[in-house]
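Duplicate of earlier report; IS4 family transposase input re-posted below.
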Amino acid sequence: MHTNTSEEWAQLIFGNANLGEPRRTRRLALLASDMAENADSSIVKASDTPAKIEAAYRFIRNEKISPQAIADSGFSQTSEAVKQLPLVLAIQDTTGLTFKHSVCKELGDVNCANTLGKPSKTRTLYAHSTLAIDADTEHVIGLLDQYYWFRKSKVKGTKDQQQQRPYEEKESYRWQQTLMDIKKRTGELSNILNICDREADIYEYMTYQKDEGHRFLVRAKENRKLIEPQCNLNQLIETAQGQCCYTINIAQRAGRKARQARITLSYQPITLAKPKRVQGQESPTLSVNVIVCQEKESTQKNPLCWILYTTEPVNTAEDAQKLVRYYELRWRVEEFHKTWKTDGTEVEDLRLQHSDNILRIAIIKAFIAVRLLQLQNMAQRSELDKEVRCTTCVKEMTWKLLWAKVEKDVLPDKVPSLHWLYYSLAKLGGWYDSKRNGRVGVKALWKGWLKLAEMVESAELLISIQQTEKL
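Output:
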């Protein structure tokens, strides 16, 4: 979808939205297209005429337009793509959108969880996202689901009393609800592997998936009691015998430096005991495979240690390594949230006065963030794309204009590669490899892409004028 124009992309994602009237759907596609062209801009800046600004705000404020209907159009498009693939990684994660203007009056009575340096009126709109990735190519397919909520009031009672609440009334139920919603769209989940972090280490959630025949890979959080072998999880980790060792690259992120880690893997089938707090009809035990992935000989302050539960077969070291790689890809959903919130579409800068109005635009921006992430993913396939001509993505005139602008040299005899195209776009957008890691940020790529689009549009306009003068 990254090779489409903004208009084509918007029509593909939102052109089938059921908003009650066809003209509303057309307006949605136009608004999404304008916002995609100006991903980090306000609604006013993204709309280039007073008429467009007025139409955009009429759409945003229209109570008859359901935010969920906007989202369902995009989810359906992703679902159709998912059905065509042998294995898809459905990566779930939760983030919070923080606001501190008047919309906070509609977002409950609970302050933002992170109030450090923020005024007391700050509130959070939570979003639980599911990003679909092709397991074979590791390409981002699209956004498969999003669930929004806010905390109306604090949950009262002791920790034990809170744990005894019905599972369906807890926030943690969103993990299961997400799968149920995805299944309604896709029809089945046989080609989907659900990948979750430690927050999803929930006995009811894993039991539900196992009973329904779903596939999952969940990172362990609790020191659970095991029936087979007879020990707890921490004891199993301490006594685990390595079955293979290999080196992985840990990317630079936040305050963490990029490094290589020597990993020891062990794997075996285990049976988890049902926690005492769990009420209802859940199975008294849960049989899964476990993969212990850890740095045993490391000088790092926090050596890597992942404990992964899975329903996938783990018969060989190659099986275990493949599943660990799938879990490594979980950071992609964090990259999506970062792109959505701060590095791409700046969704937290919205200053709309009602929560539904914010939702309508936040959902559009979420799909734009996915598009930006897809563009960034392209730039990270450097070795593969050195062998592919850039004309698979852009027209001949487009790469020639980019060459003249970036290389400032005569055109080459051979069409340059995709590798050259991506990094030239980044340079056009102001990127410089200051950290020497070759990673291109979303903003630089997108700015380069937009600058190139303007150059192409100007060149095509000039050609059109010249042809008219000849006539």
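The first strand starts at residue 88 and ends at 99.

Merging into the original ticket.
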